[in-house]
Model the fold of this input.
Amino acid sequence: MPFRKMKNKIPLLILIVSVSLTGCPADDANFSLDEPKEETNSIRELVAEAFPEGNVYIGAACHHNLMETKSGEILKRDFSYVTPANDFKQSYIHPEPGKYKYEKSDDWVQFCKTNTQVIRMHAPISPQCSQWVKDDARTAEEMESMLEEYIMALWTRYNGTSNIHWLDVVNETIDNTTGDWFGPKPGTDKWENPWPKIGYDESHPLKPPLYIKQAFTLANQYAPDVKQIINQHGALDKDTWEKMKALVAYLRENNLRIDGLGWQAHIDLGWEKIPGNIERLGEIVRWCHYNDLEFHITEFNVWLKDENAGKINEQATTFKAITKTVLDNRYNGIVGINFWHIRANDTQNKDRDGCLFDDNYEPKPAYYEIKELIESYR
Done:
């Protein structure tokens, strides 16, 4: 079925996705980067062959200091789509009042141009802000000024850069444990989101924080050439994502452009076995396309915690089930999948082993399952 853009919107049917799960090929077990086995192409080559319509992007995140390591080599070899981890965030770009640092972000633009890769600029207004912004004494007026200053500086610099395709405008707006808007906490050393200090839109039933509207207003103005994404983290629980849908509607009611919805999928082993999860994921992808939005898994790990340590075959099953659900729902719009780093040692959660490669850069069963899945669409 060819990729097409829906012109006449019709009610969606919620389909139960049938997931085909297979084990890791036995002859892949001894594969290494130093002595590659004679096998199929890289992930990026397989994606180009399987999805020539250009509606599927599969990529990975990486830190700047790993560019010249084996992680960087794998990134170049296997992925045509890159998220430069934290290197576009305010905490790096604007670490102190009056101080800006663009060395890492500029390096990423050049690195990806050299290697024919596109970028999702992970530069959201979010909890990932500079520590000085979290000062409890900040007023609403100061917060507004700091938000605008950062957006204007960064997005003016990179708008029009040919290989930057997406911009994460806002991240993690909803506390997925309470369903409330995620907000400030006392002090500057906690995981918090200081931006709701700007206030809330009390005129709307949703009462969303004003910073979200402000961020998209400025993004629409200063990054008109870049697709604009809103992200939410968590396990895809129903109430949170219904609130996200309502937030998208609110932004559009205010005549603001929003191009895609992102899910930060840092999930536990066996997520796909929880009743309703796979069905809800498929429904959200279809909802996005029905509403002229792209759908992206913007950060993708399957954690192996505690008693699940070492269960790499089961991990492959979870990775594959989720990837298959997204790819099976690609026909009416764009979908993207971004694996959050190459190996566990590259992440903040080294003990959870949530990536496609082990710490010796050896491909895990999940890597082969993803490749086999993509090949099945050719």
Q: What stands out?
A: The two ends are 12 Å apart (CA to CA).
